[in-house]
Amino acid sequence: MAGFVVILGGFWGLCILSVALLKWNEVRYRKKGLPPGTMGWPLFGETTEFLKQGPAFMKNQRSRFGSIFKSHILGCPTIVSMDPELNRYILVNEAKGLVPGYPQSMLDILGKCNIAAVHGSAHKYMRGALLSLISPTMIKDQLLPKIDDFMRSHLSDWDSKIIDIQEKTKEMAFLSSFRQIASTEASSVSEAFMPEFFKLVLGTLSLPINIPSTNYHRGFQARQNITCWLRRLVEERRASGEKQRDMLGLLVGGENKYKLSDEEMIDLIITILYSGYETVSTTSMMAVKYLHDHPKVLEELRKEHMAIRERKNPEDSIDYEDYRSMRFTRAVIYETSRLATIVNGVLRKTTTDMEINGYLIPKGWRIYVYTREVNYDPCLYPDPYTFNPWRWLGKGLENQHHFLIFGGGTRQCPGKELGLAEISTFLHYFVTRYRWEEVEGNKLMKFPRVEAPNGLRIRVSAP
Ligand code: HEM
């Protein structure tokens, strides 16, 4: 009996303490002028609910507080905006003090010169340097031939095999970028480089706790190894004096009008590898999934790619004209990005106290520009949960201002065309060479950014 009373007392004590802590945290943030919302637990806020429930958490809070609300997620007090007009305003007004607000672990591991860490003129310069490497002319003359060559070999021996498509598309996104960056060294270095890069990616998505065995610690060490390799590569290139036709060649050789220090060059290379990695791999994997589930779409896509092959000899590569002619493929990629919402939103932070939509947002608060809901708006996309690539044909949907799959404003994705070229070339060789059926992996895996099939495995065969 006495034991029961102690347990009951302890339980009540815990309940009272929890309520007091929650209340205290609410009161702490009850500043005048802030939007409505809940702040959760001291320190952790509502991070657990946010990570566990994903989009359902956002929907629930919106139904309680409206499309602009406050919360405390990923270690920071945050305003979530699900309001399309306000989202647009935030994206185009970086100059008013609405700068990128990515987590500390990401900034530490990607380096202080990475594009998300720099603002104003420094951002303009780094972005210019990046655009000079991935401009349409560069894609046409240098990058597409490399992408084509890589995809052919990456997809050369899938016949009669069971393929883990998630794993393969991840390797594809990394190795294809690495070839574009350092063509000559890619085959010898990438085997050792790839596991380190994967550790780096995990580290950027973790809490910044620097003790052995944390993902942050491993990610940080991986960054050190990667920068060490890249520094050596830069020095070897400089010492050899040879002109190489790849991104590193352009950066190290004196011809580019953008002159970067070694540190800036290394951070830019890490940015290119990182930014195109999860986006390109997840879109490619989800396209395979949707194509499998929608045979009519697959048939139309295959028709487009077979027509390209018929104009060519079997060993001819895809050129820029072929890529530009892939109208239906582009529509398939947009529809995949829309329906799977590859990027749920982007993060900003305030550099001064400011008034937005009648609310007073304190300096240093994060703003989560949540763009996911727009993708399922039935006024913009009738029957929004249906996979229908035809909706993208001929209506200029990609030029409308609610199209935020690649972000918007001054930070709009500079790698859009490169990403599309990579995914299109992958799909070209995949659908012209193979047929496939799913053998495993229909369960959905949820993580903050996208809902994806976990370990989707397919049995591949020649047509
Ligand atoms: C399907 C593929 C892709 C999608 C859906 C995508 C999406 C996005 C989005 C939504 C942003 C805006 C981030 C923000 O506002 O904070 C962004 C920015 C960026 N993307 Fe992409 N991206 C893709 C492919 C690529 C590729 C292949 C590269 C390689 C160079 C790349 C490089 C970047 C960079 C460097 C930024 C930051 C730009 C800046 O801060 O000025 N992206 N991307």
Automatic annotation (TrEMBL):
PROSITE patterns: CYTOCHROME_P450. The chain crosses the membrane at residues 6-24. It holds the Pfam family p450. It is found in: Membrane. Its cofactor is heme. GO terms for biological process: brassinosteroid biosynthetic process; response to light stimulus; terpenoid biosynthetic process. The lineage of its organism: Eukaryota, Viridiplantae, Streptophyta, Embryophyta, Tracheophyta. It comes from Salvia divinorum (Maria pastora). This is C6-oxidase.
